[in-house]
Amino acid sequence: MLDNAKTTRWTLRFALLTLLPLALLLPSSLLAWEGKAVRIVDGDTIVVLRDGKEQVRVRVYGIDCPEKKQPYGRKATRFAAAMVGNELVDVEHIDTDRYGRTVGIVRTLKGKHDLGEALLQAGLAWVYARYCTRPVCSRYVQVEAEARSRGEGLWSEQMPTPPWRWRADK
């Protein structure tokens, strides 16, 4: 009886020590969920209705749009609203930020279009290099560079101020 309890305890410890680290290595795509984008806060923050009842504030991963009072801030908000407003979206959970928001890659359910990439392509966002560390970020950097070279959106300005610098100055 005592040996059986000892064996069970060791089996549980082994399972926890083995499976827990493996669970941490799971791709974030396994943490994806669907919902309806019910509010666009600004270009890179939306509210998604999850399971028809829980409103989740989602910060778009890897990008930073101009603030509403900055040039192109309102345009970024309108762009996000046109793309995902009242639409079903897929949120690939990456992290939770210090404000309690889900940080994730947001894609339209129809077509699987990436909101962050679309904002970069339109010249309405910067890659947020400080936080953008996933493999998708190399694509984001490329898309931003292409928008810059075309003079899209905020890249038509001589020296657009990144939102993180703008916020620091306020």
UniProtKB/TrEMBL annotation:
Q: Which SMART domains match?
A: SNc
Q: Keywords, A to Z?
A: Endonuclease, Hydrolase, Nuclease
**Entry-linked Pfam families:** SNase
Ranges for domain TNase-like come to: 31-157
Q: Highest taxon of the source?
A: Bacteria
The terms under GO molecular function for this entry are: endonuclease activity; hydrolase activity; nucleic acid binding
**Which protein are we looking at?**
Thermonuclease family protein
